[in-house]
Amino acid sequence: MWVAEPAWRMLSMKKIEAFIRHEAFDPIRAELLDKGVPALSIVEVKGSGRQRGEVERYRGSALMIGVRPKLKLEIAVEDGEVDSVVETILRHARSGEAGDGKIFVLPVEGAIRIRTGEGGDKALQGREGPEIPA
């Protein structure tokens, strides 16, 4: 017997993961809200890359701090919104200095809004639809 694909799989979307400096967050958030992309997750992380670390002084001793604090943004969007979101992040996070961060764009198989049970593109961002009992 043939079974149809579940509704939560019937879409084409990406997950954008951006590691940015803390000070870049507010302008990114404001522009994403203006563009109609209100939903995102934020995680405080520490990491290292080409920036490596920096020397800080504590009670007269020099300490090498090997990892730097960053924010990790996670944003799920339809394929057509990826370029706009990535451009927004680049515009506000790029200083030209080492340590600006990285952006990763990953495929997502599907999405389900837990509250309503909606799947696919209806589960993304602020789009509203009919209430579906769980």
Describe this protein's structure:
It is built from 2 helices and 6 strands. The protein is of the alpha+beta class and 134 residues long. The strands form 2 sheets. Strands 2-5-1-6 form a 4-stranded antiparallel beta sheet, with helices on one face. It has a two-stranded antiparallel ribbon with strand order 3-4. Strand 3 and strand 4 form a beta hairpin. Helix 1 packs antiparallel against helix 2. It is elongated and about 60 Å long. The C terminus is likely disordered.
Provide a short characterization of the protein structure.
By secondary structure, the protein is α+β, with helices and mostly antiparallel strands.
The residue-averaged pLDDT reads 82
Q: Oligomerization state of this entry?
A: single chain
Q: H/E series, N to C?
A: EHEEEEHE
Helix count from the secondary structure assignment: 2
Give the helices and strands, then pairings.
Elements: E1 13-20, H1 25-34, E2 41-47, E3 54-58, E4 61-65, E5 68-78, H2 82-93, E6 101-108
Antiparallel strand pairs: 1-5, 1-6, 2-5, 3-4
Descriptive labels:
134 residues; alpha+beta; four-stranded antiparallel β-sheet; 6 strands; 16% helix; 33% strand; elongated; disordered C terminus
